Predict the 3D structure of the following.
Amino acid sequence: MITDEMKRFAAYLLEGDLEAAKRLYRVMERLGYGHKEKDKSFSFEDDLFDFEPRRFRGEAGQKYRVSLAWWPGSEEQDPDFKATSPRFLQALRHWNTTANCFVLNKGPEYTELLGKPKMSAVTAIVSWPVQENGKVIPEQVSKRYIIHPWIISMHYLKDVREIHEKFPLNEYDLILGCEDHRFQRFSLQPTKGNLLQRLQKTTGEKKLLFETISRKTSILISSIEEHLGRNLPLDQVREMIREDPPVEALLARWR
């Protein structure tokens, strides 16, 4: 039977919108679409097909309660909160003003063209609805939670790891206090109870909520590197900077 989702996938291909087609394909693949043994439990009633994760960005003066959502097993929608630590992906990257995006560094040739790269890290988080004081609003959890890629510097990754040593983040959430919107500066404080881990232990509607969050997290993880930067071949990088070489690269050549 040809479903609406199949029609939408075909329409994306015909229109040449390959990015939309890839996103839809990832969702269908992750959820076992087309596999008879999984079709009975497959549902499009939630917003999975409209899920387009956006980078977490805080507003100055606001507090956010987040659960770290990327653990061993998250790719299979079964996070292991008993694991030693949550997962982060680290990569060297360059900011390119011409393309107005980050470009991943794949070797010394990229450094020669784009200048010295910076190391960054990304993971998946669930941001929960909270009051001004940072306390969760229970009745709004199922409607206002948001799954984000969280991109941080090595400085913040070090802070998260130090917190995890004293307050295991499989049992604690983080309270992020945004101090600067432009540069995304935060204070980090642990708070008792990992809400995502608690949902995993529930039944009924709360368990269904956990499963939906796990599916979305799996979708995010499948393409999480894209949130750190574009993975471009050297030829494309050369073409991109031909008319506007970065100052850092010029200085590196003169040293």
